[in-house]
Amino acid sequence: MYEFKKLVKAVAFGGVLAASMAPIAANASVLLEGWSGSGDSGFGTIALEKNDDGSSQEIFFSDYADLSFDSGVNFFGRSHDSFYVNNNGNISFNGSVGSFTPEEFPITRFGDDNGDGECEVDCSDIPQAQTNSAFSTPENDDIQSPAELNTIAMIAPFWADVDTGCDDCGDVFIGSPNAETLVITWDRVGFYPSDSSLTNTFQLVLIDRADTGAGNFDVEFRYEDINWTTGDASDGENGLGGVPAQAGYDAGDGVNFFTLPGSRTDEVVNLDTAASNTDTAGIWKFAIRDGQLPGDTAENPILPVIDPENPTDYNFEFVIIEPETPIFIDPDVAVGYDYIVNSGPNITSVMLPTGFGDDVYDLWLWDAALMDWFDTGEDLLGGVTYDFDTAVDRFRILGIETSEMVDPTDPNAFVTALTFDSAGVINMNQNAITEFVDDAQAVSAPAGLGIFALSLLVFLRSRKRLA
Predict the structure, then answer these.
(1) Distance between CA 252 and CA 119 in Å, rounded?
(2) What is the C-alpha separation between 265 and 130, in angstroms, rounded?
(3) How many CB atoms lie within 10 A of CB 388?
(4) What percentage of the chain reaches a pLDDT higher than 70?
(5) How far is it, in rounded angstroms, from Cα 195 to Cα 191?
(6) Which residues of 181-204 are buried (b: 16+ CB within 10 A; e: fewer)?
(7) Per-residue pLDDT tens for 92-104?
(8) The overall pTM is greater than 0.70
(9) In sequence order, what E strands does 41-180 have?
(10) Cα angle, residue 377 at apex, residues 374 and 381 outer, rounded to 5°
(11) Using CA atoms, how far apart are residues 287 and 12, in angstroms rounded to an integer?
């Protein structure tokens, strides 16, 4: 499940796909390795000696002479020029984290007050200057953070009880394939207590995107091989059960966080094979831009989990904090869509995008008695909010001209803004309705799409109302 929370100030986690990694070689699976200077491991240098629950010393981006990140990273409105690598499958800002059982996000823990990465006394009163963090806003790029924001933030590809102390266990590495990229690799790591009967291999990749704005960066989670989820001290047995791993990020402010599907459940073991927000199983990509969460703007929409077997059906699950604030979602498109709430709050308004022919769309609603769609006769205009008379759990739009030839493989093609009638967790689908066009550039019509006929060629009006 996606879980999103709205930040009071601007936030810095985006939902668009990360930049191309063409300069870096990836193997047949998903790992980045073997770059020039990566050493015998293929992943760089050892980040941590063999240990259980340990952390690195504070690592500064400037420690790597050829690495960019000149502005550090802007993570939830706070700029960081350093971080800690924690053995237990994560990195953190403002202090190290030794916890071996993943705590459910969001978490508030205070930063380092004595130089060892742990919080001791009166931590919340420490000036930000002592923690290499500054709070930034659009009005002022360097405002001292209020004391209550002096907390540890985390990016966690796989927070669980990693143990590299066993002889047959692998290690944790850090390396820089190029000036824009930093890679942290947990290679064949075991679980507590020093058990290598099952091992995991995964990576966290940070990519400097200062070309799009100071402090902007991309994040990749790359899961090569996930076989265990839990250490024995987290009530696991033989690497499974108990409190399983958590993957995602946490601002440390008690409000803003994100977790990957399956986190803290047995399903997290499938992160290397399950569908992701990219077209490659095992790779998750996120863009952190200008202090905005996914869904805040049309340029940074929430992206769905894509089912490779049904590539035009998109599933979204997220948390609504402010029901009247539009949430932008985006699937690939063809000639129309069904928007269906599977569970959670109902939809109170919709705003469709512009730039698609005449920008006039047809609204269809569901007749529960007839168990069928009916044409309302209403016209929805692109860029104009349409308020439903009463909240609905589904609706259909038609009328996208086939001449637009919208690419159904483009995940940013048709961004829709929705509002809802209450706060809560929502699970919904946006399913593309496709039409075959006998042309080399035609949109595709996937087999087995039973929502609507593949050839919708009856036009009732000059503006191409499909019936």
Answers:
(1) 14
(2) 37
(3) 17
(4) 66
(5) 5
(6) bbbbbbbbbbbbeebbebbbbbbb
(7) 999 999 999 999 9
(8) no
(9) 45-48, 59-60, 73-75, 78-80, 82-86, 90-93, 133-135, 153-159, 162-163, 171-178
(10) 115
(11) 9
